[in-house]
Amino acid sequence: AQKVTQAQTEISVVEKEDVTLDCVYETRDTTYYLFWYKQPPSGELVFLIRRNSFDEQNEISGRYSWNFQKSTSSFNFTITASQVVDSAVYFCALSDSNYQLIWGAGTKLIIKP
Amino acid sequence: IAGITQAPTSQILAAGRRMTLRCTQDMRHNAMYWYRQDLGLGLRLIHYSNTAGTTGKGEVPDGYSVSRANTDDFPLTLASAVPSQTSVYFCASSPNPGGSGANVLTFGAGSRLTVL
Description:
The structure holds two protein chains of two kinds.
Chain A: E1 3-5, E2 10-14, E3 19-21, E4 24-26, E5 33-39, E6 46-52, E7 59-61, E8 64-69, E9 74-79, E10 88-95, E11 101-103, E12 107-112
Parallel strand pairs in A: 2-12
Antiparallel strand pairs in A: 1-4, 3-9, 5-6, 5-10, 7-8, 8-9, 10-11, 10-12
Chain B: E1 4-7, E2 10-13, E3 19-25, E4 31-38, E5 42-49, E6 56-57, E7 64-66, E8 76-78, E9 87-94, E10 106-107, E11 111-115
Parallel strand pairs in B: 2-11
Antiparallel strand pairs in B: 1-3, 3-8, 4-5, 4-9, 5-6, 7-8, 9-10, 9-11
């Protein structure tokens, strides 16, 4: 069965700290996609990144970086030097062989000034 | 600004009433989706449409119906609302349902529905 687990329900850190959001997935497919979406307090979900199963290169975009490890079925998300504006709920998702998305329960990230 | 418009933003509804949540996109995306978001459960797919004229059931379709008469509109109807349908509903779209890049979803701002 396809499954995405975000074990951290809520994380609270002080501004400028680094923080890592964990995502562990289960799938029997050999070809799949993994995603991260951000849901700020305004409510609208925003796409952050997509990674396909054949590309294990880590990705860095400014203060954001993603570590994809097939060996541990993980796709973790790190924010470096966190800012208050990073406060949001972050969702990890898996695209299955039917191209439907399986979502994790989300991690609420609170950045304190 | 291109995107998805959902209406209403918020609604309080008596149990047993019929309610339609509206969703319109102007990006000419083929695929559209309805999700509900409940605390601790993430997003759950209610119904989807891969292209105009077709619809499919998602993970939690019971009590909901959809139609896709054209590319732009994808309304979600609750025929007889029940309190367990209290949730935040998100409409989303993607260029196509399959292939690389297909599942990068664009979301609407959500509709908060309370059924009493």
